[in-house]
Design a protein that fits this description.
It is a single chain. The chain is α+β, with helices and mostly antiparallel strands. It contains three helices and seven strands. It has a single domain, classed as 2-Layer Sandwich (Alpha-D-Glucose-1,6-Bisphosphate, Chain A, domain 4). Helices cover about 30% and strands about 45% of the residues. The protein has a seven-stranded antiparallel sheet with strand order 1-7-6-5-4-3-2, with helices on one face. A hairpin with a 2-residue loop joins strand 3 and strand 4.
Length: about 150
């Protein structure tokens, strides 16, 4: 069960960063490389506590769908999204926003279990953890750029 931790400093308020991270539209723009798009549930605007979104994207050359729900939300400091259906066996993704002088430290904790038992564990070691870390860092870099403009 890998846990990926990442952080990035953004020269914007916690409120601005929080809303950007909850934005379906910013999420789709930040993941255009994988052709990610919202196809069910909340499909635009800011997703809220208890709402779900179903994403469709292409990862590893395969079109996939994943549904996540916002299970915790403490505006503007923290929210959690959890997978309820999709390729992973499970995932829990915490987003934290810590005010700092001149901006906000955005902190992600992505805790997941790959599917397929021992085969998934091998995939984690070979490529999946690195792939997910890069995916999350690229998304946060996009959020940083959007918030600082």
């Amino acid at each position: 069960m890998p846990v990926i931790h990442s952080s990035i400093f953004v020269q914007a308020s916690a409120e601005v960063c929080f809303d950007a991270a909850l934005s379906i539209d910013i999420h789709m723009a930040s993941t255009s490389r994988t052709r990610e798009r919202a196809i069910a549930g909340r499909t635009s605007g800011l997703i809220q506590l208890g709402e779900s979104v179903t994403w469709e994207a292409v990862h590893f050359g395969v079109k996939q769908r994943l549904t996540a729900v916002i299970t915790e939300l403490e505006r503007p400091h923290r929210f959690v999204d959890e997978m309820v259906d999709g390729a992973f066996k499970r995932f829990w993704h915490e987003h934290r926003f810590v005010p700092q002088d001149g901006g906000t430290l955005m902190i992600d904790t992505f805790d997941y279990t790959a599917p397929l038992g021992w085969l998934g564990q091998v995939a984690d070691g070979l490529f999946l953890t690195r792939y997910m870390d890069k995916f999350l860092r690229e998304r946060n870099a996009y959020i940083k750029q959007a918030c600082e403009q």
